[in-house]
Each structure stands twice: as structure tokens, then as C-alpha cells.
Fold each of these.
Amino acid sequence: MARKVVITGLGATTPIGGDVPTLWKNALKGVSGTHTLTDEWVEKYALPVHFAAKASTPATDVLSRVEAKRMDPSTQFAVVAAREAWKDSGIEEVDHDRLAVAFATGIGGVWTLLDAWDTLREKGPRRVLPMTVPMLMPNGPAAAVSLDLGARAGAHTPVSACASGTEALHIALELIRSGKADVVMAGGAEAAIHPMPMASFAAMQALSKRNDSPETASRPYDISRDGFVMGEGAGALVLEAEEHALARGARIYGELAGTAVTADAYHITAPDPQGLGATRALKGALYDARALPEDVVHVNAHATSTPVGDKPEYTALKAALGDHLENVCVSATKSQMGHLLGASGAVESVLTALAVYHRLAPVTINLENQDPEIPLDVVTGTPRELPEGEIMALNNSFGFGGHNAVVAIRSTGPKVEMA
Amino acid sequence: MASNEEILAGLAEIVNEETGLAPEAVELDKSFTDDLDIDSISMMTIVVNAEEKFDVKIPDEEVKNLKTVGDAVSFIEGAQGK
């Protein structure tokens, strides 16, 4: 019998809350973290998209100036979220040789990389900061979190675009199940609201162009959806072997019961229209959790609000859950906070854990005319109560490159009222 | 040309920016490594920032000789205007 893995700590910094309590309160209320950008570079480079969902609390407000100086913004977010999750777990003593990190990013240190390139061209090599490479490397967030916690059982960095954060949970589960670690700090971080990625995503026609109404731009499942909204931030989860958590009397949000990662091998950016890879990931996560479709009550969907992306996810859910899908309520939380790319899966897993813990599914905003080809039971308006007893919720993440990652979180209850 | 006092004050500002150390802690007889706990990477950043601030060149092979804040002030003073 494989070791059970439970979630005992949560942390996040997002466009709708700089910590988990604020994020959760807003996710239940339904707010938009998307706003018009006031950065000079929007006009300077005549970017076609003028808005994004920036972190509501800049990491530099939380970290000391000297700490922040040696970290790319993506790493700053990672450290902020991981510290909150660690504190939330209540772990006071741990065998550091049995503590690991699995912290993802989709893009990595793009600010550091491009700032250094500007410096090199304008001022020459002497002015390029010595810390440039360790700041831009994609394993920067994982390494910084490992250093911060003294985690010595390995610091891993899954990089699978927008599936990265969810893939981090997959790796964490394997680390604990296989006995390589007892506790893992898992998560994802992204800080790519920079003119270059913005220009690239816009050139790909992936971003919404609702410049006149940014707050309504992220509208998953709506018939008039026209692209995703760039977001930034980080999510972090403390995962622990169940016996380790029970021995210290930890508060348990839920069990990370199963995970699966698949690849489409179909197209570098377009999702497989039949959602075959996503279907295999969904079925794989259920199998891994030793669960049936009927156990699932809630899905935090990937649902980025792109015209081509939202439908194949529905197709995959239908294929994996069958007629039971009618009984599953779906939340598309990117409607509120935009798309946090490599951090999205981690933040959405935080929300999924809270959903099963408090038995409440967060709301989807901006859904005015639901696409008739996506007949999902979408949670809008007010949060949806989830049933009593043993329940399971899924979080889906899919990334450019054909990456599919699904996690299944189980709660045996009882419902825990919010403080 | 900056005076000794101005160079010391400017260096203290650069050190503060890089490490968070109070500018008053940056005194002439303090060793960068032993007293101020500045590692080699921070030292290189400080050197480059000092080059820009005081418009001097501090060759890499010279940096290892700059053991104390006073060494750096003297070097910068001598290098000015060259």
C-alpha cells in the first residue's frame, strides 16, 4: 500500500490576494484582478494588449530590499508563497534531509534575462550583474525555496509551460510515495508580465484584446471569449506523508490522492481537439487515486478563456467522467485572476484544496452567454456548497508543448467552516 | 574629484544598497569580508557600482587587494582623473 500524502500548508500571492485568506475570500466573492497597465513600456512598444492581472501585493512589499535584490521577480513570488505555506503547516521541527522542494515555473527569470541583455548592450559586460545567471535560471525559485527552508532532499523544477505548477504536485507525490522524502514544498511561480512575452503571446493571438474593458476580458466558457489574460504570482502547498502529519497532529486540508501527467504529441501549441491527452491525464489521476468518476464533485478547470482551448477540456472531462459530469460543478478561476502560466496549477490547487476543506466551490465571473458547445455546470454568482462525506475534486492544467497534468484531491470531511 | 570623505560616504551608500548594512557601519578600518561579511559576488557588484559612481576603473586583479574599506577609498582616490 502506497504512502498516503496529505496537504497541510497553503500559501499564495496572486492578482486577487497577496495571501491565502485574501485569495480565498475574493475567490468566493468573485472579483477581477485584471486592470489596465500603467507601465511606460505599454505605450513605448505600442503593445496591442494594454492590460494584465498583476499581483495585488508586490513581492518587494513583503521581502526585504536586500533579499529581493538577488532574486528574479518569479523567485520573489515563490519565496513569499512558500513562507506562507510553511508557516501555515505549523511544522516546527523537520528532518531537513527528508524535506524536498518541487517548485515550477513556466518561463523563468525573463525580467532578469532581458534587463541584463539591455545592460550588456548599453553599458558593456562589466556592468552585467554577477548574479544574473543564478537569478534567471528556471530552477531559481526551487533553489531559493530550498535554501530558505533548508530542504536537502532535492529541489526539483518541472518546466511544462502552463502545466508546470500542477506537475510540481505530481513530482511531490512521487517523492513522498517512493520514500525519498517525508515533506515536500510544492508550487509554481511566474512573473512574466513583461513586454516581450506580452508581445509574443499577442502575436500568437492568444491574449484577449478587450482593452476597453479589462475586468471582463478573462471570460472562460463565454461565447465571446477572445483569449487569456496574463497573470503573475505563486502558489505553494506543503505535502506530507500522512503518518508524518498525524504524528504531529497537523491540520489536514485534504489528501493529494492521485496525479497524472501526459503529453499530446499533437501540436506545439494547439490542444488536441479531441482532448485525448487530457482525457488520459484525467483517467490516469482517477486511477492513481483509486477513485471512480462518481467520486468527483468539483473541478477547477484549466479554462483559460481562449476560443480554442476551453472546448477540448470539456470534451476530455466528458470522456473521462461520462454522464456523471452533469453532477460535477466547475469553477474557472482564471476568470478572476487571469492566467498565472507556470504558477496557475499551483494556485488553482490551493483553491481546490480549500474547496474540499470548506466544501465550497469558488465562483467564475464574466460568464454572460455560455458557449452552447460547452454545457458544463459552471459555478457563477455565489459559491457552490459541496456535499458532505467523502468527496474528490480535480484540478486540470494544460501547457504549450502538449503537456497535461491533473491532480485529484480527496477529503473525507467533515466540512470545516471558515474562520 | 571626490574627497576622501565623499568617497567613503559614496561607498557606504553602495554597500548599503547591496547588503542592507547601515552606512555608519562602513568605516575605513573595516574588512569587507571579515567585518562586513560581504561575499565575492556582492564585492564585484560593489566594485562595478563604485566604478560608475566615481568614474574610475578598478581592475579585477586589484579587487583582491582591497581588503578594507580604507583600501578601497585610497584606491579610488588615486584612480580618479587617470
Amino acid sequence: MTAASLTGADAQTEMPLKRRLKRAERARHIKALALVLPLLLFLLFTFAGPIAGMLWRSVDDREVRQVLPQTVAVLANWDGKDLPDEKAYAALASDILAARASGTIAIAAKRLNYALNGFRTILTSTARNLKAVPESGTAKETLGKINPAWRERTTWTTIKDASGPMTGFYLLAALDLTRNADGAIVAASPDQAIYRNVFARTFTISLSVTALCLILGFPVAYLLATLPPGRSNLLMIFVLLPFWTSLLVRTCAWIVLLQSNGVVNDSLHWLGIIDEPLRLIYNRFGVCVAMTHVLLPFMILPLYSSMKAISPAYMRAAASLGAPPGTAFLRIYLPQTLPGIGAGSLLVFILALGYYITPALVGGAADQMISYFIALYTTETANWGLASALGAVLLLVTLLLALVYGKLVHGQQVTGGMKN
Amino acid sequence: MSDNPSLRTPSQRIAWTATIVISTLVFIFLIAPILAIMPLSFSSGSYLTYPLPGLSLRWYDDFINSPRWMTALKNSMIIGVASTLLSTVLGTLAALGLAQWKSRFKPLVLAFVLSPVVVPGVITAVGLYFFFAPIGLTGSYLGLILAHTALATPFVVITVGATLQSFDTNLARAAASLGASPLYAFRRVILPLILPGLASGALFAFATSFDEVVIVLFMAGPEQRTLPREMFSGIRENISPTITAAAVILTTVSVILLATLEGLRRRNERLKGSSA
């Protein structure tokens, strides 16, 4: 009986305690969330929202349906096999007249011209020459007379494809693909198929820069990790100072150094090595040199921290067991630096992929990376759909690599990579 | 060089010498460009070549008397200081919250908070350009301050978060048990202890904004052009020695920031050492 009453008393005091603990825990949870929330909301407005908006723009396709609403409605029931019937022509004629009155023809013309080169002329010439609503039953004939393109099926499939409200057109274009008149995905025409090339170039430049950074960064990181702290801290300034110097200053410095009457060419000339100035800038060489200079610290710092964590006892053990130094380095030391090599290389590669300023300033036309085209289509030609689609592809690749980087750094407890 | 204790065989000595030689060359590669443009800003001629025809301060004079460059400097300071303040507040609060928060979603939230560092600048800039234009935030100081704050806050979260990791939570509990209100405990106990991390975070934030150019390229109107933005168009058009003067001024700012940060780091390490 006493035992039963005891357990009963225990249960009575235990329950509220548990509940109280839970409540305290929950209060802490809510307090913690309340502290993080302002930043989350802020980033939603200034970062995630804008990027989501950009992604939306890469599939958004409402221009044509806003300018030619009746045509789009009629074409929704068209199977696309033969020319559409008279109803579609009449709808188009009425849409064009309405759009001409409201001055919106150019909006649809621009969008349709992306899909079919020359569509702008077809639409504007039709708008110019269409005097009035054709009499019932004559729309097909009238439009065909104004521009024979209206007698072709592809003209109509182009409008149908661009009917929206959403499209894969820009995303396909970003990968040099397009839909043919029958709706199958095919390779884009050669004059528009430039983006795979640009992506390949972006990858090649990023990969070369990563390789250069690794080759140059490895010995430096090794030296810094091996020297006594006093001396390595001093030498670290050589890595941190450029790291903290403005990107624009460093790019400007390379132009001054590498231009045809710059310091490097002058010195080589003075030494008698060259007679004519070498072309060192506004080409691939200049881009790789300047980018390597900017990104090298991002390689050295994670490498340094992974090397710093390797105990010298391993190498001594290898030596005492009779391993020649070269073998010990390759079999004992190098494998332990692999997480650092992986982290540094991924970081440099990820950062290099998105480079814009440096190639824009020290590269030639054939050295512009994907970011350049995104910027170009946003501000110069205002082809926002394509800019967004290219951005979506770049973002996807970057985030995938960042995920791998996160796993690598988190899993191996490699510190560094961030500034300092 | 006999610093390395494991230099027994000649091949090891050769490898070590090679490491030193290559590293020296890499150090030259890293520093030389920055050092090379400095003397050019003191040139009395208008060509960016050596040898200098003579020394003068005319390009600094040009910089100071040019309304374009002075406006740019002023804009950089306004936007830099404002986004530093904003990102330090937001980032410190978030770091405090994240340090207390235990949940399986935490890595996800942390990844989201840090993502502005990873996403290519052009993508953020294009997104902001589309998003801010309809609500009138392009071509405004506010728009640039908000955008730079988003880019700079991750650095504050990282540095303050790192300080909090070595922070003894018992100190906060002790303050509470002695009757301090949460706000009072924060002001008198937590804040002084995380101040070095907070200050480093603020410096990172300022450096991020001060050096940012892609977003400014997309969003700034003629009124809001910053120093890096002026340098960008200056480099594009033609490099006059005034740009090298601007470069020296920017580099000086970087060196001051770096030195302050290094001082903070040393102080922090000393504090850690004395408390251990």
C-alpha cells in the first residue's frame, strides 16, 4: 500500500514537472524563432522573393495572350495540323486592329520574333496594311494577301506556342533547344544556339582557374601550415591583403600591368625577351590570370586549415616505419588534405561560375561568361525571359555544387572558406 | 631554411626549397599588382607607365575636386554605413536565436540565411532589378541599402555565431538568477562578451557593401553611383591616373579594415586565453 501511494505521489509531482519543462522548452523555442524571424522576413523580401520572381519570369509568357486575346482563344481549339480556319483569321484581324489602336503590337511582335525570326516584320506590316475589319468570310484571303506568311502553318504554330500563360520556351532556348511546328523538342537553329557554347566556356574558364588556384595555392598553404606560427602569421598578410583589396582595384591593377605598354610588356622588352608587345589582356589569358588572383585566397585558406589539422606525428610515424619521404607524402599527407582540396576547389569553382565584373573588364568578346549574357539580356536587349532562364540554369548548377560543398565541409569539419 | 624539423634527406631539402621558391613567387603574384599601381597615382604624367616622369599629387587633387568622385565616395559611405547598421542588428539577433534554437530544420534555416554569399551576384542583381523596379526601389538609396544588407548579413551571422559558440551560457543563466531582466542581461553580460565578434561582423558587412558593384550596376541611378561603380566605368572608358588615386584610397580603407579586424581577433584570442 505504501509503495502504491508513493508511486502515486511520484506521478503527481512528475507530470507537472515534465509539462513545465516542455513549456519552458517551447518558450525558449519561440523566443529563439522570434530572434531569427526578422532576418528571415527581411531576406524573403530582399533576396528569396526577387530570385523567385526571376525564376517565375523564366516560364512566364503572357505578352501574346494580352495583345492577341481572341486569336489565342480560337487557337486553343486548333489541332495545329493544317492551317487554322477562317475564325482564327477573323480573330487575328480584329486583335491586330485593336492592338494597333492601343499601341501594343510591338509587345507581341517582340515576343513572337524570339520564336520565329522575322515575325516582327510579319506582324507590323500586317498591322500597317490592314485597313479595316475584313468582311465576314474574307479574313483568310485578306491577311494572306497582305503577307503570304499567314498562309504558312509555322506562323500559326508560333502564335499557338506563345499563347502562354506559361512556357518552356526560354528554358529550352537557354539549352539551345526549341520546339518545332509539331511540338517536338529539337535543336535550335545554329544562329540562336550559342548558350551551350557559353556554358561550356564558363565551365572551362572556371575549371582552369580552379586548377591554377590549386597548383599555386597548395605549396603556399603547405608552407603556411608548416612554418612556426609567428612567421606564418606574418606571411598570411600576403594572402589576406589582396583578399581585402577591392575587386575593382585588383582588376584595374592587372590592366595596368598587362596592357601592351604595361609593366610586364615593358620589362620583357627591356630584358630583350620580346620585340613586339605580347597581347596579355582582353583575351582568355588575362581573364584567367585576373580571376586566379582574385580567387586564390579562397583556395589557400581552406587548404591551410585542413593542413594545419594534420598532426606531424603521422609523417614521423611513416618515416620511422621506413617510408621514403615521397611515399609518405603521397600516401599519408596528401590523402588527409583531400577534404581541404575538395572544399577549396569547390568554393573557387562555385565563385568562378558566377563571375561577371572581371571577364567584362579584362576579357574579349569570346571570353564572356554566362553572367555577362544574363546582364546583357536584362539591361540592354530587355529579353527578360531569356535572361531569367539563363539565370535559372546558373542558379541550379550553383546550388547543386553548394549542396555538395556544404556536405563536404560539414561532414569533414573543415573550417575556413569564409573570409578570415 | 631549417625550420622544418623533418628535413633529413637531400630530396626533402629540395622539396622544401621548391616549396619556398614557389610560395615566394605566388606571394609576389598576389601582392605585386596591388603595389604596382600605387606609385602610378603619384605620377606627374598622365600615362600609366614606368618610369614615372616625376612625382606629384595632381591626381589626388583631381579626385578631391571632382564632384563625380566625391559624390561616389559619399554614396559609398552612406550605403556602407546604413547597410552595416542594419545587417549588424538583423544578423546579431538571428545569430542569438540560432544559437538557442535546437531543431532539425536548423541546418536548412542556416543554409537559407547564408545563401546570399553563394548565389552569383548577377542573379541576385537581376532578381532585385525586376522586383524593386515596380515598387520604385531602383534608383534609390533605400533599395541599394536593403540589397547590400541582404548580401552582408551572412557575414555577421557567421562571425557573431562563431563568438557565441565559445560563449558560456551559464553566464546568462547566472545573470537571470541574480534578477537581471533579459534586456539588462543582454546589455551588461552578453553584449560585452560578443562585442569582438559583432565588431568583426560589422567590418565584414561594411567591406562587403563598400566593394559591391554588380547590384549597384543594375540598380543605382546616376545619383547613387558608388566608388566601385565609378571605377567600373572609369576602367571601361579609359584608365586615367585619377582611378589609381581612387584605387589607393580604396586599398587604404581595406588595410585599415584588415588591421582593425586582426586587432580584434588578437584581443579575442587573448580574452579566450585568459578565461581558459
